[in-house]
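Anyone opening a protein record will find just a pair of labelled lines. A complete record is shown below as an example:
=====
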Amino acid sequence: MDFLIALRDDPGRRTAYASRNLPQLLFHAKNDGYVFTASDLADVAGALEASVILNKDRDPFDGTSRLWRHMWGRTHLDYLITQVLSRHTDEELRGLVPGEAAAS
């Protein structure tokens, strides 16, 4: 979550990561001090999407969700930051990851 928040808060850094594929993103994130796996990233992305779909939009978690339309024409990273992460407060974001709320 810290990595996504850092990209949200730093457009220059977000631009630097925008064209990277997943292995490149993981490698460069580690060099920037963020150590996580593809599975960790998928878990966080899934929790963020579920929060938007179920709690904010109150849509069913299926192909009819309004959120999915925002994915088209974007990289997954851009979609996560601009369409999903942006729908949460920092407090909500911390609460979505086990152990994060206590660490803040």
Q: What stands out?
A: The CA atoms of residues 1 and 99 lie 11 Å apart. The two ends are 12 Å apart (CA to CA). The mean pLDDT is 91.
